[in-house]
Amino acid sequence: GQEEPVVSVSANGFAVPEITIMEGQTVTFLYEEARPTNNVIQVIHDGDKLRPVIGGFSCDINKCKGRYNQQFNLEGEYKFAINNVRCTPLTVVVKRRTDLLAEITDNGFNPKKIYIDQGHSIKWQWKQCTAPHSVQEVKYCIEKGCFKKEAENAEVVKTVTGSFRQTFTRPGLYFFQTESGEVEKLHHCAVHVRETQREYKVELLDRSFQPMILLIEEGDRVWWFWDKFKCKKLHSVYQIEAPTGEHGDDEPYEPVQNGFRSSVPSKQGLLSHEFYTPGVYYYSDQNFQEAAEYIGTIIVKPKQKEHYVDLTEKGFTQDVVNAQTGDRIWWTWDAEESLKRDHIFHISEVDKMLNPLAKLPTSENEKYHHLNEDAIRLCTSVGLATTQYTTIGVYNYRIVNGPDSMNTCSVIVNPGPKNHTIHLTDNGFEPKVITVRPNDRVWWVWQSSKKPHDIIQVSHQGKPIDDGFCSGLARDAPSAFVHQFMAPGVFYFISSVLPKVFGAIVVSTQPQVHEVNVALEIRPDPVTIKCNDIVCWIFRGLRSYDVAEVKNVDQLTTEELESTAVTPRRCISQAVQKTGVIHYYSKSFKRQKKESDNLMDDIRVSSVICDERYDNQVCRLDSEGFHPHFLYVTK
Predict the structure, then answer these.
(1) Residue 560 has pLDDT above 70, yes or no
(2) From start to end of 134-278, where are the E strands?
(3) Is there a domain that residue 419 lies in?
(4) How far apart are CA 121 and CA 202, in angstroms?
(5) What is the per-residue pLDDT for 184?
C-alpha cells in the first residue's frame, strides 16, 4: 500500500541524501547514464572511514541494466555510496512495518484480494454495520473443492463495530469469511502471502553476542553489528570450525576456509551473510591483541521446496510432478484473461493413493461450505491455488467442471527429510529416545545448561565409535549440533559430562512410491518393493483405465478382468499390502497400435515383487528359454 521510492544515480552522486521507508518496501536506484560504470554499494563508517559492508547490498552494473531494485526487510539505517565517486552517501532509514488496513462493510471485504509479504500483518475494521460481523479464517479444502473451518469458537463475538488483526509468518494462500447484510450469506477474502527473505540482527558486545544463538531458515540473512559507543574493544567477526576434542584452552579457533568474516578489527562495523545450506554454523570474535573464547551459533533449518505448475486453456503444462513430504505446489494461471472470458473455476482433488500406514486427520470438528458462484469467482481471480503435502502417496487433480479432454495433474510424493530436536539439560536428554526416518536430521540444542556439553556417538556398551558422529569440543550453552541419518539402524549417543546417561536414535524405513514407466516396454519389470509401498505406473499420454490384480492366467485368456474407468491421467497407482509376487493388468497397458489376431499378444502384465528384504533374484523366461541359465543365491 506504499509507493515505492526511486533514487536517481548520476556521475555526481545521488539525487537525494536521505529517504525514509517501511520494512518490506523496495527502493529503485535508477541510473541517469545510458551506460553506467560505477556500482552502488552499501557502506559503513568503521570509526575512521567509510568501508564497504562485506556481504551487504550492492549493484552489479553489468547485470542491472541501469536499474537496481533492493528490498529492505529489517528496521534500521543503511548507507550507500557509489564506487569511485566522491559524493554524499545516501541514507535509507527503514522504519518498522505497520499494519495494512482493510475495510469490512455489510457488502463484504474491501479489497477482496490482498497480496503481502510474509511477516506483515493485516487489520480489518468495520464500523456501524447493519449486521454484526466477525472475521474467521477458512481453509480451501482441495480434497473436496470447498471451504472448511473449525467448529464455532465461543470466544468469537460478532459486533457491528470492531476489528480483527492477523500476522502472516508463513507464505501461502489464506481465506477469510465474514457475515453479510443479507441473511445466511457469507463474504470471503483471499490473502496471498508471498515468500520473502527474512533478516536477523546479532549485536557484538565486548564479552558476548546478543543473541548467542539464532534459529533461522535457509535463504535468510544475518547482520552482525557493533557500535563504538557500546564497545571499548575493537571487533572482527569470523566463522570458525567446530572445535575438536583436542583443542587447547589457549589455542585460537580455526577459521573456516572461505567462510564469512569481517575485515580488520574496527571500532564499529557491519557484516552480512546469507545462509543457503542447512546446518549449524559457529563464529567467534577477535581483535589485534586477543581472540574471544565465546562462540556464537546459527542454526539454519531447511526450508520447504515449492513447485509451480502453469494452467492454460489446454490444461496443466506439467501433468506429472515429483515432490516430497513437506513440499508445496502452486498452480498458477492468467486470472485476468479467465475472468475476461467468464471462465470461472477452481482446482479439486479427484482421488489419491496414500501410504496405507498414514494416520489421516479426523474432521469431526470441521464444517464444510460448498463454494457459491462468488467464492468460485474469487478463487479464479486470485490466479493461483496451492496445497502442501504431509503424507506419502500419489495425488490427482482436475479442474472442476472442466472438459474430459483436459488432462489431470498427478503429484508423486515420496518421503522428504524431517527435522527432530533433542534438548540437552544438565540432567540428560529430552527426549532420550526418538524414532526417525532415513534422511531425517536430528538437532541437539542446549540453551540453559550450566555445564558445557557435546554429543558423541557410542556403542551400546558406551564406547565412542571412531567414525561416528561427534560435535567436537564440549561447548558452553547456548549451542547446537546437527546430524543427518541416512541408513536404518539404532544409534546411541552420550554427552561427555553425562557419561552414564544414554540417548538413542532409532532410524526405521517408511513406505515409498516406486515409478514404473509404461511405453513400448514396461520398465522396471518386475519392480521390487516392500510391504505398504506404492507402485505408480507412468504413461506417455493420458489413460482412462485403472489396474487390477491378476490371480490366474484364465482371467486374462477369458477376459474376465475388467479395468475400472478413471478420469484421464498419466499416472495410475496401487498400494501393495501383502508380500509375494503380484501381477497387474490394465487396458491402459495395451500398446497404441492395431490389435493382433492373437489375444495374448495384446495383453501386457506388470509384475511386482513385494518382499521385506531386497535379496531376491529374477529369472526371465521366453520362447528361447531361461535367462540367465544359472543362478547363484545366498543361503
Answers:
(1) no
(2) 136-141, 146-150, 162-167, 172-179, 186-194, 199-204, 209-210, 213-217, 221-226, 237-240, 269-274
(3) no
(4) 24
(5) 84
Please determine, for residue 616, whether its predicted confidence score (pLDDT) is greater than 80. no
CATH of the domain at 81: 2.60.40.420
Structural domain range at position 478: 431-440+447-507
User: If residue 403 lies in a helix (H) or strand (E), which one and from where to where?
Assistant: none
Q: Are residues 360 and 483 in the same domain?
A: no
- Do 53 and 17 belong to one domain? yes
pLDDT digits (tens, 9 = 90+) for 346-398: 899 999 999 888 877 665 556 888 888 899 999 999 999 999 999 999 999 99
d(CA 286, CA 236) in angstroms, rounded, equals 5
- pLDDT at site 325: 95
Distance CA 442, CA 309 (A): 32
pTM over 0.85: yes
Q: Tell me what the mean pLDDT of segment 4-20 comes to.
A: 93
Nearest C-alpha neighbor of 273 from the set 196, 169, 197: 197
Same domain, 175 and 314: no
CA–CA dist 629, 435 (Å, integer): 44
Provide CB contacts within 8 A for 431, sequence distance 6+.
422
Domain membership of residue 425 (yes or no) is: no
Q: Examine the pLDDT at 234 and tell me if it is beyond 60.
A: yes
Nine cell digits for residue 254: 580455526
578: Cα within 13 Å, side-chain hemisphere: 5
User: Exposed, middle or buried by CB within 10 Å (0-12, 13-18, 19+), for 120?
Assistant: buried
Please indicate, yes or no, if residue 422 is contained in any of the structural domains.
Answer: no
Whether 280 and 332 share a structural domain: no
* Domain assignment present for 1: no
* Cβ atoms of residues 269 and 226 within 8 Å: yes
Based on its alpha-carbon atoms, the radius of gyration of the chain, rounded to whole angstroms, reads: 31
Q: Which three cell numbers stand for residue 393?
A: 502417496
User: 300: which residues sit within 8 A by CB, 6+ positions away?
Assistant: 216, 217, 218, 220, 275, 277, 278, 279, 280, 281
Rounded to whole angstroms, how far apart are CA atoms 207 and 230? 11
Q: Does residue 110 share a domain with residue 90?
A: no
pLDDT for the residue 345: 87
- pLDDT at position 14, please? 95
CA-CA-CA-CA torsion for 516, 522, 525, 527, nearest 10 degrees? 10
- From edge to edge, which strands make up the β-sheet containing 90-95? 18-22, 90-95, 76-82, 40-45, 50-52
Please tell me whether residues 296 and 337 are part of one structural domain.
no
Structurally, the chain folds into a number of domains equal to 5
Omega before residue 511 within 30° of 0, cis: no
String of DSSP letters for 4-37: PPEEEEETTEES-SEEEEETT-EEEEEESSSS--
Cα–Cα distance between 249 and 76 in angstroms, integer?
Answer: 38
* Number of separate helices (H) and strands (E) present in the chain: 5, 53
Place of cell 551400546: 460
Same domain? 463 vs 493 = yes
Judging by beta carbons within 10 Å of its beta carbon (0-12, 13-18, 19+), is residue 348 exposed, middle or buried? Answer: buried
Residues 294 and 337 in one domain: no
Q: Which amino acid is at 83?
A: N
- Tell the burial category of 128 from Cβ atoms under 10 Å away from its Cβ (0-12, 13-18, 19+): exposed
